[in-house]
Amino acid sequence: MIYLKTDEEIGLMYEANQLVGMTLGELAKHIKPGVSTLQLNDIADAFIRDHKATPAFLGYGGFPKSICTSVNEVVVHGIPSDKVILQEGDIISVDCGTYLNGFVGDSAYTFCVGEVSEDTRKLLRTTKEALYKGIEKAIVGNRVGDVSNAVQSYCEARNYSVVRELVGHGCGRKMHEDPEVPNYGRRGCGPRLQNGMCICIEPMINQGSKNVSWDDDKWTVRTRDRRRSAHFEHCIAILAEGPRILSTFEYVEDIVGKEF
Predict the structure, then answer these.
(1) In b/e form, how buried is each residue of 150-178, taking b as 16+ CB within 10 angstroms?
(2) At 67, is the secondary structure helix, strand, or coil?
(3) 192 beta partners
(4) pLDDT tens-digit series, residues 59-84
């Protein structure tokens, strides 16, 4: 069932999502060679709690940490660990959620660790641009497939592949609500977008094959060919006047600039 939000509820979701953006900005200060993903988790956990919220990911479906840290070929759901140490030239997707005032905020950003190759920058740039292509289609009267197709066509035209097994989603009082929002699909298909819908659009785009596999931990998703994957996510509200982005990358970009 799709839950439409009131203006007041969207305002509360905005606050939760802005805190996610602030948390990602705080992490941007610490993402560098030699730092473990567990250190990043602990920084995020403390920052979220200091702002009177709770980490939405911790314990969700049994997930053991407060953020997802996905390095290089890990697509999503990487578990922070003191054994995963960032190296020069890595990329890391940080997916973060907060629970504040009864609503969830959810956003993700893929960071460069030091200097990365131009091929890697192109992957990140394309994935981030595809996110905004999808948002442009998130207007009242369109369908989910219009958003999905915008992401897919933009990335595939640039010779990247789109992960099929993992999708975006509705968001609100719960982390995952209806509808599902794939990053691939046909225009004019899927649920119709309505005023008050809140969805997370999150392209997961691979350099090589679209095929993925799960680690034994049942969480970590990797590209089968071990080529790199990028992930960006915004939570948006669909309104009569157009899509409103509730999350933000501004705090990240204040630290790292528009690096792609």
Answers:
(1) bbbebbeeeebbbbeebbbbbbbeebbbe
(2) strand
(3) 143
(4) 999 999 999 999 999 999 999 999 99
